[in-house]
């Protein structure tokens, strides 16, 4: 599918926003450059933000910056299906979470997000911003809800750091089917006190993963990335993925 990419700023900036203009709609994205490395294209982490956030939320920026610093990779984000620049007004976090939950249960927009992610990846690789042989997925919560279908559909993604999503909100048949087709190495995290998704619903997703190399970790606390060692484990997994490529 033909597309145009409009960059806000310079593609040499630490990070910059862009608009990927497709025939039917626009995909809003953000790219974080890796630190320069003697002309060698960097690895690339595909980062999907959580359900109440957007690609330029403070939490998204902080996480992207941590990925660049810890893994040495560049980072690509796009807004969720009803998030950020895709919507006319921004909502408070808990209100946005409720809006997204209703959207997921009613429609979810999975096929559209898979297409948007794949075309955003096409655009980045076409411009030589990253190494096509070293691509990983990083996304917990909503990042897993869309990450599983994306990873199942795109063989360019070599590994996935995921978790904190279950079958409780619906679309279970679709997610379980995509999980079975997802065969890349995967790290999946569960929070023992998750107030949004049950442990059973999260384990159902993990157990369906078709990968012969999958790891399940449980951390204390609720639905967040704040447990001691939790973020470090995800970052170490991605770093190891790139070192093995």
Give a verbal description of the structure:
By secondary structure, the protein is α/β, with parallel strands linked by helices. 38% of the residues lie in helices and 20% in strands. The protein is built from seven helices and nine strands, in the order ββββαβααβαβαβαβα. The chain has a nine-stranded mixed β-sheet, with helices on both faces. β6, α4 (142-153) and β7 form a beta-alpha-beta unit. α1 crosses α7 and α3 crosses α4. The protein starts with a strand and ends with a helix. The mean pLDDT is 96.
The tally of beta strands, per DSSP, is 9
Helix content: 25-40%
What would CATH call the class?
Answer: Alpha Beta
- Report mean pLDDT, rounded to a whole number: 96
* pLDDT < 50 runs, ≥5 residues: none
Structural class: alpha/beta
What can be said about the biggest beta sheet? 9 strands, mixed
Q: How many helices?
A: 7
Q: Count up the domains.
A: 1
Topology order in helix (H) and strand (E) letters:
EEEEHEHHEHEHEHEH
Q: What is the assigned CATH homologous superfamily?
A: Alpha/Beta hydrolase fold, catalytic domain
| Estimated share of beta-strand residues | 15-25%
Integer-rounded radius of gyration: 17 Å
CATH architect. name: 3-Layer(aba) Sandwich
**Spatial arrangement of strands, main beta sheet:** 1-2-3-5-4-6-7-8-9
- Shape descriptor reads globular
């Amino acid at each position: 599918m033909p597309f145009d990419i409009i960059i806000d700023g310079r593609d040499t900036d630490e990070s910059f926003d862009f608009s990927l203009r497709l025939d039917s709609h626009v995909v809003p994205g953000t790219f974080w450059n890796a630190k320069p490395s003697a002309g060698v294209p960097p690895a690339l982490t595909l980062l999907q933000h959580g359900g109440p956030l957007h690609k330029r939320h403070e939490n998204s920026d902080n996480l992207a910056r941590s990925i660049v610093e810890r893994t040495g990779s560049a980072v690509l984000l796009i807004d969720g299906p009803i998030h950020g620049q895709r919507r006319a007004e921004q909502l408070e976090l808990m209100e946005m979470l409720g809006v997204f939950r209703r959207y997921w249960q009613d429609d979810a927009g999975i096929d559209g997000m898979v297409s948007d992610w794949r075309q955003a990846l096409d655009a980045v690789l076409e411009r030589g911003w990253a190494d096509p042989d070293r691509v990983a997925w990083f996304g917990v919560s909503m990042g897993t809800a869309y990450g599983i279908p994306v990873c199942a559909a795109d063989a360019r993604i070599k590994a996935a750091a995921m978790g904190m999503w279950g079958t409780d909100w619906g679309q279970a048949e679709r997610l379980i089917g995509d999980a079975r087709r997802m065969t890349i190495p995967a790290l999946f995290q569960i929070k023992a006190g998750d107030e949004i998704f049950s442990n059973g619903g999260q384990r159902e997703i993990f157990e369906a993963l078709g990968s012969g190399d999958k790891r399940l970790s449980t951390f204390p606390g609720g639905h967040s990335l704040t447990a001691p060692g939790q973020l470090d484990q995800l970052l170490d997994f991605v770093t190891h993925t790139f070192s093995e490529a």
